[in-house]
Amino acid sequence: MIIREASKTDYPQLRQIYLESRRKSFHWAKSEEMALDDFDRDTVEEYVLLAEENSRILGFASLYLPDNFIHNLFVHPDFNGKGVGTQLVKNAIEKMGKPVRLKCVSENHKALMFYEKSGWKKVVEEGNPGEEYWVLVYE
């Protein structure tokens, strides 16, 4: 598996992964409101790392470097549980240095378990009722 910086030529595949992953796992969100161009809107001014194997993109992480913040971490549904997310997070931490922060929707129990098993600590739960999320830190 190769981890590298994304280029604009990767964006069609990244858009698809972002859309498919959210539609499959974000049971709390309205999938009919999700669109391919959400990726572009949700990664403005961010550094995008991707995981690739045999010329196929397996997942990505978008980082907001000024704040050492992982904004997005998405793995194609076909590659969940195969270490893709772990490698992306590891490379994100190497790129930014510690401490690193992220937010995770409280309803995303699978992701919260992934982060906690990887050594992330819950700091505070924030957000409006029905839109709560955890702020997590890795030090």
Automatic annotation (TrEMBL):
Short name of any one Pfam family annotated for the protein: Acetyltransf_1
Protein name: GNAT family N-acetyltransferase
Keyword Membrane listed: no
Domain N-acetyltransferase: 1-139
Matches recorded under PROSITE patterns: GNAT (PS51186)
Molecular function GO terms recorded: acyltransferase activity, transferring groups other than amino-acyl groups
Keywords from the named record: Acyltransferase, Transferase
